[in-house]
Amino acid sequence: MLENDKKKISGPLLYAIIGVTVLVVAVAGSAYAFFAASATDTGTIKGDTLDIKLGLKVEKVSTGTGNLIPIHDGSNATSQLAKAASASSSCVDDNGRTVCHIYKITISNTGGDNAAVNSTVALTGSANLKWANMSNQTTVGATHAKTDTTVATNASVNAGGNSVQYIMVYINNTGDNQTAADGGTSFSGVITVTASTGEAVQATFN
User: In terms of DSSP H, where are the helices of 56-197?
Assistant: First the structure.
């Protein structure tokens, strides 16, 4: 009979055929994926590092000399900083005593690329030692405790050019007896300038 003449495919043989078919499809698929991925690799990614070479100079530009005496910065009395910073005073009060020091910070870049730099100041000295940002040699900006360190962030220094910043350092007049806290003390500072590349330069002052 016809039905009896049909050959049956055994279970193991059927599984083997299915397995081979799946393997062929899988290999073909992975090979296609590999060649498709390879076709998109058109070249090696290349890049160049920035050419930034920083220099730093810090110089005192006010005329007052010797130890500082306290001055009001407005935290507990009318601020005297603006008058002290004026060209006619240059950090010397009406009695000829030095009430502050003004420093010019010059950041140079002799590299071939423009730079963005951050500058900080670290002060050590008397208990009420403070500093202030200045927009130029005679104009006082925000005042800071010596624990505040940021002078400027992302300041631009063009290739072959320089950037100039100013700070004022003074002892704040608290209105109390400050002999123990501030009398007979000296101070020093460190300016640090860091570029986006990680290059850093430092200069000390006192």
Answer: 81-85, 179-182
